[in-house]
Specification:
By secondary structure, this protein is of the alpha/beta class. The protein has helices at about 15-25, 60-65, 85-105, 130-145, 170-180, 200-210, 230-240, 270-275, 285-300, and strands spanning about 5-10, 30-35, 50-55, 70-75, 110-115, 150-155, 160, 185, 190-195, 195, 220-225, 230, 250.
C-alpha cells in the first residue's frame, strides 16, 4: 500500500529535495505551506501534489481528509532575516508541537524531525542563540511524546547542495566566485565542519520510510554526516578551483570568529549504520562539483534569498 507522507518546509531547500524524491518514488506526498510561500523549488511538480495553506486552515484538516502515515518536519527559522524571537519560537517549537500533537491524536505512525548537529548539548542554555535554544526545546517535547508515536530525530551536520539559499556559506562563496567578486572576507577558516551532500540526506529519510515497520514506538536519534571534518578554508579554496576563478581574493582572517565558535564538528555514524544500514555515498569534492555546476547553469534565474 502506498504510504502518505505529510511534509513541512517543502518549498525550502531540504524539504523540496525530499518532496521531489518521494513523489518520484511513488509516495503520496502532501505538503504544508503558507499561502504566500514561493513555490519555485517545486513549481514543476506542484500541480501533482496536494497542498494545504496553514495560514488559512485548521491544522487538523489534512489529517481529517487523509490517512497520514508519516510526518516529515523540515520547516525551520534560523533567525537570519530579522525575525522576532517569538516568530522563531512559533516556527521551531509551537507549530511542530501542534503538528506532533495532532499526528498522535490521529494515530500517525511516524514523526521525523530535522534537527541540527551543533554540539549544543553541552552548552548551557544562556549561551545558546535563539535558533539553537528553540531547537533544543522542541527535542524535549519530542521526548515527551515517545510513548505514543515513532519519533526519528535526525541531527544534520553542515548540509549543502543544489538550490540552497545564498545566506548559507557554500552558496554564498560560490555566488561571489561566479560573479568574480574582487574579495571575499572570511574568518581564518580553521573551524572544521562535516559537509554532507543533500542527496545523501534525502536518502536517510527514504531509508527510514522503507524500514520504519521494524521500529517500535519511541525516540530514535541519529547523527547525519560523512564522519569527516574538513576545515572551512579548504572548502573555500576547493570552490575557487572548481569555479575556475583566478581573480577573487579569499581574505582569510578578515572576519572574527563568532562568539562561542565551535571549532570542530562531525557526525558519529555508528548508530545509523547499525540500525538502518545507511552511509553517505557522495563525498565532498564530487558533491561540490555537482553543486557548482548547478549554480553555473542557474545563477541568472534562481530565486533563493
Amino acid at each position: 500500500m502506498t504510504k502518505t507522507i505529510l511534509i513541512t518546509g517543502a518549498t525550502g531547500f531540504l524539504g523540496s529535495h525530499i518532496t521531489r524524491e518521494l513523489h518520484r518514488n511513488g509516495y503520496k506526498v502532501i505538503i504544508l505551506k503558507r499561502s504566500f510561500s514561493d513555490i519555485w523549488h517545486i513549481r514543476d511538480i506542484y500541480s501533482e501534489i496536494k497542498s494545504y495553506d496553514i495560514d488559512k486552515i485548521d491544522l487538523e484538516l489534512p489529517f481529517k481528509e487523509n490517512k497520514i502515515d508519516c510526518v516529515i518536519h523540515t520547516a525551520t527559522s534560523y533567525g537570519r532575516k530579522g525575525e522576532r524571537v517569538s516568530e522563531i519560537e512559533e516556527t521551531n517549537v509551537t507549530f511542530p508541537l501542534k503538528l506532533l500533537e495532532i499526528a498522535t491524536f490521529f494515530n500517525t505512525d511516524t514523526f521525523s524531525n530535522t534537527d541540527t548537529f551543533s554540539n549544543t548539548d553541552t552548552i548551557p542554555y544562556r549561551y545558546l542563540n535563539h535558533y539553537s535554544l528553540s531547537k533544543r526545546q522542541f527535542i524535549e517535547w519530542l521526548s515527551a511524546f515517545q510513548d505514543r508515536i515513532k519519533i526519528f530525530n535526525l541531527k544534520l551536520e553542515h548540509m549543502y547542495g543544489e538550490a540552497d539559499a545564498f545566506s548559507k556559506f557554500i552558496p554564498f562563496v560560490i555566488k561571489e566566485l561566479l560573479l568574480k567578486a574582487k574579495e571575499i572576507k572570511l574568518t581564518k577558516g580553521e573551524q572544521k565542519r562535516d559537509f554532507i551532500y543533500v542527496e545523501d540526506v534525502v536518502n536517510v529519510y527514504k531509508s527510514i520510510l522503507c524500514q520504519v515497520d521494524k521500529f517500535p514506538k519511541g525516540f530514535h536519534e541519529y547523527e547525519i554526516g560523512t564522519g569527516i571534518a574538513t576545515p572551512i578554508k579548504d572548502v573555500a579554496l576547493l570552490l575557487k578551483t572548481l569555479t575556475l576563478n583566478n581573480e577573487t581574493y579569499l581574505n582569510f582572517g578578515a572576519l572574527p570568529y563568532r562568539e562561542n565558535e565551535i571549532m570542530e564538528s562531525k557526525a558519529n555514524l555508528g548508530k545509523i549504520k547499525k540500525d538502518i544500514g545507511w552511509e553517505p555515498k557522495i563525498f565532498l569534492e564530487e558533491g561540490l562539483k555537482r553543486t557548482v555546476t548547478w549554480y553555473i547553469n542557474n545563477i541568472g534565474a534562481i530565486n533563493v534569498q
